[in-house]
Design a protein that fits this description.
Shape: elongated
Helix content: under 10%
Number of strands: 15
């Protein structure tokens, strides 16, 4: 027998000894809080659950993916150069420095430290609901950036990113979005945002505007194909790009007569009580939600 994976039960609290060297995946469960110094060096995926909060100075040398649960709150050091994915839970507040060249970093809801010294190798970065630091020098390889529900800083530090494709901003963000990277394809703006969107980059495909937004949408990028607008929007619509998907929220009650030819899906609120005419011949789905 060549054992590859071990998942310990949620109530397991004993020390871990004599794990076969063939094991590459270890999940210690939600109650384990013992030293991991004796686990095999060949483990590539390590999941330390919600109960684990031991300082670790020696990690498995072959580690590729590391998940730390919601109790863990110690500085991270000596992580192996093989590490690619690091997921840190909701209790972590320590500063991050000296990380290896990981590609994916997810940090939970207590973290609020500078990210200006993160490795440039990171392509996907998710920061939780306490993070509200100015971003000056983000990782240069970023493709996806998700910022939680406290972030409300200017985005000038993102303008130099040449690979950023997806940007998700949480429910506190209400700053200008005029200097975003030309590479951006998807932009989600949360439920506090109510700023002008007339200087977004050409190339943008998908735009989601939250439940506070009530500004004109007559100067959106011509490349936009998917537009979702939340429950405060009630502006006239005169000049939309060649959309294929349009969803408008509960406050919208303007006449509809100039929708783009090519539109496939139109979703309106069940509260809508106005005229619609000259609907595009391409329309396939027309719903009241």
């Amino acid at each position: 027998m060549s054992l590859k994976m071990i998942r310990l039960p949620a109530n397991y609290t004993q020390t871990i000894n004599n794990i076969p060297s063939s094991v590459t995946y270890l999940d210690t469960g939600d109650s384990f809080n013992q030293s991991i110094d004796l686990i095999p060096s060949g483990i590539t995926t390590l999941v330390l659950g919600r109960g684990f909060n031991q300082p670790v100075t020696t990690w498995p040398s072959s580690l590729v993916s590391l998940t730390l649960g919601d109790t863990y709150n110690h500085p991270l050091s000596n992580l192996p150069s093989t590490l690619q994915t690091l997921i840190i839970g909701n209790g972590f507040t320590a500063a991050l420095s000296g990380l290896p060249n990981i590609t994916t970093l997810i940090i939970g809801n207590s973290f609020n430290q500078s990210i200006d010294s993160l490795p440039n190798s990171i392509t996907s970065l998710t920061l939780g609901n306490s993070f509200n630091q100015t971003i000056t020098t983000p990782p240069t390889s970023l493709v996806t950036l998700r910022l939680g529900n406290s972030f409300n800083k200017t985005l000038g530090g993102l303008s130099s990113l040449t690979n950023l494709q997806t940007l998700v901003l949480g429910n506190a963000f209400n700053s200008a979005v005029a200097s975003l990277p030309a590479s951006l394809r998807t932009l989600h703006l949360g439920d506090a945002f109510n700023q002008l969107v007339n200087q977004l980059n050409e190339g943008l495909n998908t735009l989601v505007l939250g439940n506070a937004f009530n500004q004109s949408v007559d100067a959106l990028p011509t490349t936009l194909s998917n537009l979702t607008i939340g429950n405060a929007f009630n502006q006239t619509i005169n000049n939309l790009p060649a959309l294929i998907f349009l969803q408008l929220g509960t406050a919208f009650n303007q006449p509809i007569s100039q929708l783009p030819e090519g539109l496939v899906t139109l979703n309106l609120s069940i509260n809508y009580n106005n005229t619609f005419e000259n609907l595009p011949s391409t329309l396939q789905v027309f719903s009241f939600i």
